[in-house]
Specification:
The complex is a heterodimer of chains A (about 120) and B (about 240). Chain A has a single domain, classed as Up-down Bundle (3 helical TM bundles of succinate and fumarate reductases), CATH 1.20.1300.10. Chain A has six helices and no strands. In chain A, helix 4 packs antiparallel against helix 6. The longest helix of chain A is centred in the middle third of the chain and has 29 residues. Chain A starts with a helix and ends with a helix. With about 240 residues, chain B is α+β, with helices and mostly antiparallel strands. Chain B is built from nine helices and seven strands. Chain B has a five-stranded mixed beta sheet with strand order 2-1-5-3-4, with helices on one face. In chain B, strands 6-7 form a two-stranded antiparallel sheet. In chain B, a hairpin with a 2-residue loop joins strand 6 and strand 7. Chain B is elongated, with a radius of gyration of 20 Å. Classes of the chains: A mainly alpha (about 120), B alpha+beta (about 240). Chains A and B meet through helix 1, helix 2 and helix 4 of A and helix 9 of B. The complex binds iron/sulfur cluster (2 copies) and FE2/S2 (inorganic) cluster.
Chain lengths: ~120, ~240
């Protein structure tokens, strides 16, 4: 049982999942503050200036880190919630199948958003 | 006063039901919930519950009193229900009911057992006893007093959802009791057994455990200490 558990959680141990969750939350907070700041303090905000801001190499790197943090954070959260509620205790015999299906769909979506995001930020 | 008691005999009843019983309580005195329960049992002897010491020491009469877990013997009716309100008694939530207010604590004890709640020391025992400094001894305060009443673990949503994998506040408080003991030499092994995503890390810091503990203990703080120890060992 523990093998399956470890194969699907991201950091493969409770400690690493927990650390990733905290660190990614901090990155996302910093990123949100940064975006909010630029929204508030950029004069004449338009498409061109917005695009230029995100095109700057520092911002590209920061965005990528934030995107990775978002995906890791989301996946650990989803994994935790699905193992709490989508199980045999709540759903009966089909619990494990429903959980694996839901986790599969969420993992795929997370991956798609990640790749799509990379394309948006780095695709030029 | 009106007492509403959860009744369920899995061998006979298809589902649980609440039974209302009117009991006469003295107007000049504040009874404990357990006293009221005894009066109700005098009217209907088929009501089942556990109790032993009737002074908050043995931990056997943990139950859900008007929605809050506590020991019936040391919970005053005035605090539990308030004047004119009815007393509602249910078994501790989340565990299988054996009968009425008696729950099956097997899962709870199994989690307790997992943390090896005994001193492990592989050094040769000294001639008389293993000494501790007063400071070392002080670290066990707030931990050793637990009476295993299960009020905390059965108020914890993480324990409800994962009773086989999450150790729960009571077990983790004891885990830390031995991690913090200067005489114990198995710290590293103990920690490595707690590192999976469930045993400790299912604690979401909801602190229901702290708010119900009849002994005023703080499992959330102990869990925080375990987490920092894991962090120190794992990084
Ligand atoms: S920590 Fe408190 S509530 Fe939990 S079992 Fe021990 S005495 Fe009971
Ligand atoms: S703080 Fe942790 S152990 Fe205590 S009730 Fe909340 S989740 Fe459970
Ligand atoms: S009867 Fe012993 S704790 Fe209540």
């Amino acid at each position: 049982m523990d093998m399956v558990v470890n194969a699907t959680s991201l950091g493969r141990s409770g400690l690493y999942d927990w650390l990733i969750q905290r660190a990614s939350a901090l990155v996302l907070l910093a990123y949100a503050v940064c975006i909010l700041g630029s929204l508030l303090f950029t004069q004449d905000l338009d498409y061109a200036s917005w695009r230029a801001q995100f095109g700057a190499p520092a911002m590209q790197i920061f965005s990528l880190i934030a995107l990775l943090s978002l995906c890791a954070h989301a996946w650990i959260g989803i994994w935790t919630v699905t193992t709490d509620y989508l199980n045999e205790a709540h759903l009966g015999r089909a619990g494990t199948a429903i959980r694996l299906f839901t986790q599969g769909v969420c993992a795929l979506l997370t991956l798609i958003y990640l790749l799509w995001g990379v394309r948006i930020f780095w695709g030029g | 006063m009106l007492v509403s008691i959860y009744r369920y005999n899995p061998e006979q009843d298809s589902k649980p039901a609440m039974q209302n019983i009117e009991v006469d309580v003295p107007a000049d005195r504040d009874l404990m919930v357990l006293d009221v329960l005894e009066l109700a049992k005098a009217k209907d002897p088929s009501i089942s519950y556990r109790r032993s010491c009737r002074e908050g020491v043995c931990g056997s009469d943990g139950m859900n009193i008007n929605g809050v877990n506590g020991l019936a013997c040391i919970t005053p009716v005035s605090r539990a229900a308030g004047p004119g309100r009815k007393l509602v008694l249910r078994p501790l939530p989340g565990l299988p009911v054996i009968r009425d207010l008696v729950v099956d604590l097997t899962q709870f004890y199994r989690q307790f057992e997992k943390v090896k709640p005994w001193l492990i020391n592989d050094e040769t025992p000294p001639a008389i006893e293993r000494l501790q400094s007063p400071e070392e001894r002080e670290k066990l305060d707030g931990l050793y007093e637990c009476i295993l009443c299960a009020c905390c673990s059965t108020s914890c949503p993480s324990f409800w959802w994962n009773p086989e994998k999450f150790i729960g506040p009571a077990g983790l408080l004891q885990a830390y009791r031995f991690l913090a003991d200067s005489r114990d030499t198995a710290t590293a092994e103990r920690l490595s057994e707690l590192d999976d995503p469930f045993s400790v890390f299912r604690c979401r810091g909801i602190m229901n455990c702290v708010s119900v503990c009849p002994k005023g203990l703080n499992p959330t703080r102990a869990i925080g200490h375990i987490r920092s120890m894991l962090l120190r060992q794992g990084t």
